[in-house]
Amino acid sequence: MLKTTKISIRSLYKIFGNNPDVMMEHVLNGLGKQDLLKQHAHVMGLQNINVDIQSGEITVIMGLSGSGKSTLIRHLNRLIEPTSGEVFVNGENVLDYGVNELRQLRRNTMSMVFQKFALLPHKTVLENTGMSALVRGEDIEETSTKNLKWLERVGLSGYDNHYPHQLSGGMQQRVGIARALASDSEIMLMDEAYSALDPLIRTDMQDLLLELQKELHKTIVFITHDLDEALKLADHLVILKDGYVVQQGDPQGILLNPKDPYIEEFVADINRARVLRVRSVMSPKDGRLLKITGQVQASDNLEKVIALSGGNTNCCYEVVDNDETVGTLHMKELVRALVP
Question: Which of 92, 96, 190, 269 gets the most CB atoms within 10 Å of its CB?
Fold first, then answer.
């Protein structure tokens, strides 16, 4: 399927302080984040960010606290104004938008799911779900049928007349996702959406997002500091450090080929068998006469193949994707991939 760029970020800088435009000159002349803070009491939020976000994919932007990931996502709908750079959405530079165009962007094109849920406590679950329709001036009663369907999709059927305080944290976050989906926006921005949840609930929410994405094909920008979560969700992974992009690309490729010592350290303790997929370590179909033990899916993780083989390193599997043979996987290749 041909990919199309939904959001394009070009040469984006953000400097926090009293004279950011003046500080840009120092930054462009090579002054780094620490020296900018020490010498001029200004904070480098983002430095020369260049990222293309593809339509229908989940792009995960991750990094440790202070890396700039939440600052970056807030530039996409201009909750934060950049010091320099461009942000294109559907080919239009949103930094050129006036008040009315920006309002339409936030109402119709982008929805946002927050870490702290951001539900209105005096509104019912159904009313919270339909807030986008209310803001757009639509009759909330007319849209309630659609909103009830979204609540059912996120597992909240029967809770439409409850209030947020009557729900658990995971259920409240489901309302936030239903609200974003009910807005019918092309783009969903999710800023640390699952960080406040317990581990088991967090896993359920990740699975729910992936299940919905298979059908809806939304363009999702997901912010997290958790590498396991990033590797599970991402079609495209962007890793930030101190406001700049250290590495970006296919998450499987980043795990197998880290380009920087920082990334190597980041991925060192990952359970590679659980994260790596067969498609990332298989050999291409080459017509050799091999003794095939069985079939595996290209999307299977290596942990599943290890269990299937019973640990026998002499096994060799035919790899299929959409009922088509795409390669072979020998257990010896799999074992080599498990070693960083």
Answer: 190
